[in-house]
Design a protein that fits this description.
- The chain is an alpha/beta fold.
- The longest helix has 14 residues.
- Bound molecules: D-xylitol-5-phosphate and zinc ion.
Length: 217
């Protein structure tokens, strides 16, 4: 099943509750919540207090994408603030701490994910595949919305789809960055099933149509 996860990075934060209700009514499956610390990526976005407020405003599944160094420091806090899935970058710490972060998230009965930056090879997912609920392949350099889709990530998506089918078939495969009604067809063909889209949804005149087009392209 294809899921669409609008990224609120492109939403109007002055009315975040209404923005999220709008995409819920528009048929979105997940809310993608981008956390940036100004160190792991060259930008700062939103964090725990905003997540707590959003949790009160919606029942939607919140997919928290932590673009922060040493995410183990905050894994528990993001679970407690109301994330349904907490996703950590494999480049953000050593393997042992990444495994410990996944363990913390699972112990708190939340879903756990790992993310790979564009320069990180598919094999970097291998130590974690049997332990996570979702793998995110970045299709832009993380840090900013509105960038162009990197077509050279398609073989990596296909490689990870191959690993997932073999090792953990229930694991979801998410893509993030430059996804619109055109690029969504390519990533689905390569094996992705959760499609993050920021500007293509929130900047669209008709968000429901944008979500539908991304899902059905
Ligand atoms: C980028 C973020 C993305 C971003 C996607 O670092 O992780 O979730 O919001 O934005 P678009 O869809 O505009 O590329
Ligand atoms: Zn993201």
């Amino acid at each position: 099943m294809i899921k669409v996860a609008p990224s609120i990075l492109s939403a109007d934060f002055s009315k975040l509750g209404a923005e999220v209700e709008d995409i819920r009514l528009g048929g979105a499956d997940y809310v993608h919540f981008d956390v940036m610390d100004g160190r792991f990526v060259p930008n700062i976005s939103i964090g725990i207090p905003v997540l707590k407020s959003l949790r009160k405003a919606t029942d939607m599944f919140i997919d928290a994408h932590l673009m922060i160094v040493e995410p183990i420091r905050y894994a528990e806090a993001f679970c407690q603030a109301g994330a349904d899935l907490v996703n950590v970058h494999v480049e953000a710490d050593g393997e042992e701490n990444t495994l410990a972060a996944i363990d913390t998230i699972k112990t708190l009965e939340k879903k756990a994910g790992i993310t790979l930056k564009p320069g990180t090879p598919a094999e970097a997912a291998l130590p974690f595949i049997d332990k996570v609920d979702l793998i995110l392949v970045m299709t832009v350099e993380p840090g900013f919305g509105g960038q162009s889709f990197m077509h050279d990530m398609l073989p990596k998506i296909a490689a990870i789809r191959g690993y997932i089918d073999k090792i953990n078939p229930l694991c979801e495969l998410e893509v993030d960055g430059g996804i619109d009604a055109h690029t969504s067809a390519l990533v689905k063909e390569a094996g992705a099933n959760v499609l993050v889209a920021g500007s293509a949804v929130f900047k669209a005149a008709d968000r429901a149509a944008a979500i539908r087009d991304i899902r059905n392209a």
